[in-house]
């Protein structure tokens, strides 16, 4: 199994599949690695390749190395209908939204509401309708209301969901409006600005990334996110409490690697939407081709910019970013949270940073 995502990194996908096969890929080019994978899978019996979160169709054998044969089957998951309308697949399995009664049941289970509470049951039904039967929305808002027996709190949550969907989300795809509204509500009710910023900070890395807690600690120290601490150990404790709160609300997920967390791709999308306006404005140009980038004056409003895994060997463009606090950089195949191959590190000139007077963290 491998995650493709909206901006696929084919070398990483090939690496994930090779790890499952205990196969060492020594080829330099993606084409060579694809041929090696294809050869291995063609000689294996009864292989099932799962490609998760596919956004566009491409030649899977040429780009990755997955041959379509009798003994090698492929399962795709996608939110984009165009992926499966351009070719004939053996079968299509739609994962529909929950029925109303199923949605109410899921919401109540997450919120810890029993059937005896008539008033809360009525509000649970109303809130579930606002979540449009989307499981992620129901889980997020249910966890936010968990243990809350105050009717006014439930009424307030319901009204804010309705208001958010009507006013703030007019430009959001209608199928995701319930998720975005519930995530925005959970975000708004986070207790401190520090934990809010910690949450938003996780959206600056690529989709399906393993985010190391230790790196969040270091970035947080650079931003003075942990008020009143006198040591890294205290900062580490503060970060772990924040992360626990975010995981309890379903805003972050456990990582596959120890001491790491992940962010669901829809949560990340909502995060980037939240940071598209307001005091903290983030911009993500992850895996973009910036070879033609010239002096950029349209970035003045941003407080955080992620240019991870960009297609550049050297970064020397002078950027006008007077409000920028966080700058995440990385050349091709590089990552903020893993050990670098020093021979492939992105070279950054002093000129690039000259107009970043507010910069506190660069990595």
Please characterize this protein's 3D structure.
The protein has helices at residues 10-20, 30-42, 60-63, 82-85, 100-111, 118-130, 135-144, 151-168, 177-188, 193-201, 213-222, 232-248, 265-274, 350-353; strands spanning 2-5, 47-54, 72-76, 211-212, 253-254, 260-262, 282-284, 304-307, 314-315, 326-329, 347-348, 361-362. By secondary structure, the chain is an alpha/beta fold. The protein folds into 4 domains: 2-85, no CATH class; 100-188; 193-272, Arc Repressor Mutant, subunit A (Orthogonal Bundle); 275-363. The strands form 4 sheets. It has a 4-stranded parallel sheet, with no helix packed on it. It is globular and about 65 Å long. The two termini are 30 Å apart. Residues 331-340 have low confidence and may be disordered.
In short:
The chain is α/β, with parallel strands linked by helices.
**Biggest sheet, in brief?**
4 strands, parallel
Distance between the termini: 30 Å
Shape: globular
Residue-averaged pLDDT: 84
Structural class: alpha/beta
Portion of residues in beta strands equals 5-15%
Count the beta strands.
12
Poorly predicted parts: 331-340
The number of helical runs is 14
| H/E series | EHHEHEHHHHHHHEHHEEHEEEEEHE
Indicate how many domains the architecture comprises.
4
**Fraction of residues in helices?**
40-55%
Order of strands across the widest beta sheet?
A: 7-8-10-12
| Rg on CA atoms, Å | 22 Å
